[in-house]
Amino acid sequence: MSTMSFNGLLIISAIAVAAPILAASVRRVKLPSVVMEIVAGFIVGSSVLGSVRIDQPVNAVALLGLAFCRIGTAAEIADGPHRAVRVSRFWRARWGSLAACCH
Prior knowledge:
Helix content: 55-70%
Distance between the termini: 26 Å
Structural class: mainly alpha
């Protein structure tokens, strides 16, 4: 039986916390925090450093983030000719960026 490691999940969580702080601190460039999270995901993922392996905890959070992203997208579908259901921009950004970092 193999042991389960949460190191990858810790790294992803640190990226999710640090990216908005770094995006707010660099005022001259004005990058959205989602862009910084995606770039950081590429760097620590298997493409560059390989620090984060897609194991069971990371896969579970990735699927949860993807589900929230799809729910947010479905909530944007117009409900009639002039009405639309809107999801908070905060929740769409958080869960969408989490799905992007994990996959």
